[in-house]
Amino acid sequence: xxxxxxxxxxxxxxVDSRRDLADAVNATLRELGRTELPVAEIEGSIGRxxxxxxxxxxxxxxLLGRARPIFERHYGAGLLVHTRPYPGVDALIRGLxxxxxxxxxxxxxxxxxxxxxxxxxxxxAVPQVVGGGDVERLKPAPDMVDLLLRQTxxxxxxxxxxxxxxxxLELARGAGLSFVGVAWxxxxxxxxxxxxxxxxxxxxxxxxxxxxxLAG
Length: 216
Description:
Distance between the termini: 6 Å
Strand content: 15-25%
CATH topology of the largest domain: Rossmann fold
Structural class: alpha/beta
């Protein structure tokens, strides 16, 4: 394939945001009089949108209307307290700039995703960032990919999705794109391969090599 566009997931793929998300969840639980949860318990609910994260950590949707604005206040104030790129990812993004179009498709609300990308210094390298609220449906629905393909003018046959969870694989399949899984994130190799991923890499260097191979 003539690789023209790399569409990255954000949380668990480009950045490790677990601590900041967990801190915001626990601040929300405290304000609602609920018991705080360990980070390891919260991280299993990350990656499928804010409402799903809150519903699962609250044990249901009953308090969602009260919880969401509290969460948004805390998380918006602490986007990059602990959040950092995974090892080698910053160099990968900067190295691909000018060689491949790069974009982000994330279930995190788009305004937060764009702020994180900008504050990490990636805005020029990754100009298209689509997240929750920017399209009608979250991943794995193909809406984000469809929008990015229209924005960039790249055909599906020349684009690849890179992600850490089964939802990213489902996105790629539904949109007719190639897929590369990363084993370092929230889903892990077992989840990705269990969902049928054929190519899963362990390091940013292996990801760079895989993208080079896909480019032919």
